[in-house]
Design a protein that fits this description.
The structure is a single chain. This protein has helices spanning 2-15, 36-40, 44-54, 68-74, 84-91, 106-114, 127-131, 146-156, 170-173, and strands at residues 27-34, 57-64, 96-104, 140-142. It has nine helices and four strands. The protein has a four-stranded antiparallel beta sheet. Bound molecules: ribavirin triphosphate and magnesium ion (MG). Ribavirin triphosphate is lined by residues 78, 83, 87, 117, 135-136, 138, 141-142, 144.
C-alpha cells in the first residue's frame, strides 16, 4: 500500500504541466521526419530510440502520408535542383513518421545524430551512417536552422498537436 502511494505520486509529478518552468535559452524544437524508407524498413523504433537516448523529448508525433503539396512546401528551398523531382516522388511514396523533438540545442544535436546527408558518406555511429548506404534514401530529415524549424513545424503540426510537458529527468538534461 505504502509502495503503491509512492509510485502514484511519482507518476503524477512526471505528468505535471510545466507551469512556471523556465527553459534555458538553448531549448529548441526541431522537425524530424522518418522518411518512407525508414517506415518501410521498420526502422522507426531504432531511429526514435537514438533521439530519445540522447536526451531529446517527443513533443509531437504522427504517422502520415505526406501529400505532394506539403512535400513541395517543405522542400521549397530545393526547387529547381536536379534531385528535386525524385525527392518529391520519394517523400510521397509511402507513410512517414513526423516528429517535433525538443531539447537543449535540439536542431544541431539532431543533425549530429543523423550524420551527413548521404548514407555512404555519413560517419559510423550516426543514423544515416549505420542504417543506410543510399544518397537519396537517407531515412531521416531534420531542420537545419531555427528559421527552418519554425517554418517546418508549422507546416506539419497544428498548434494543439505539439505538447508542452516536462519530463522527470529534465534537470539532468539542462545546459549547466
Ligand atoms: P534533409 O533536408 O532531408 O534533412 O537532408 P539534408 O539537409 O541532409 O540534405 P539536403 O541538401 O537538404 O537535401 C534534401 C534531401 O534531398 C535528397 N538529396 N538527394 N541525389 C542527390 O544528389 C540528393 N541530394 C539531396 C536527400 O534525401 C536529402 O536528404
Ligand atoms: Mg535539408
Amino acid at each position: 500500500m505504502e509502495e503503491y502511494s509512492i509510485r502514484a505520486s511519482i507518476g503524477t509529478a512526471a505528468l505535471d504541466p510545466p507551469s512556471g518552468v523556465e527553459y534555458s535559452s538553448g531549448m529548441e524544437r526541431t522537425l524530424i521526419i522518418l522518411k518512407p524508407d525508414a517506415v518501410d524498413r521498420r526502422l522507426v523504433g531504432e531511429i526514435i530510440r537514438r533521439f530519445e537516448r540522447k536526451g531529446l523529448t517527443i513533443a509531437g508525433l504522427k504517422l502520415a502520408a505526406i501529400s505532394r503539396e506539403t512535400a513541395e512546401k517543405h522542400y521549397e528551398p530545393h526547387r529547381g535542383k536536379p534531385f528535386y523531382a525524385s525527392l518529391l516522388k520519394f517523400m510521397t511514396s509511402g507513410p512517414s513518421v513526423i516528429m517535433a523533438l525538443q531539447g537543449n540545442r535540439a536542431i544541431e544535436v539532431a543533425r549530429k545524430l543523423m550524420g551527413k546527408t548521404f548514407g555512404h558518406q555519413a560517419e559510423a555511429g550516426t543514423i544515416r551512417g549505420d542504417l543506410g548506404i543510399s544518397s537519396q534514401f537517407n531515412l531521416v530529415h531534420g531542420s537545419d536552422s531555427p528559421e527552418s524549424a519554425e517554418r517546418e513545424l508549422a507546416l506539419f503540426f497544428a498548434p494543439g498537436e505539439i505538447l508542452e510537458y516536462r519530463t522527470s529527468d529534465a534537470r539532468w538534461l539542462a545546459d549547466e
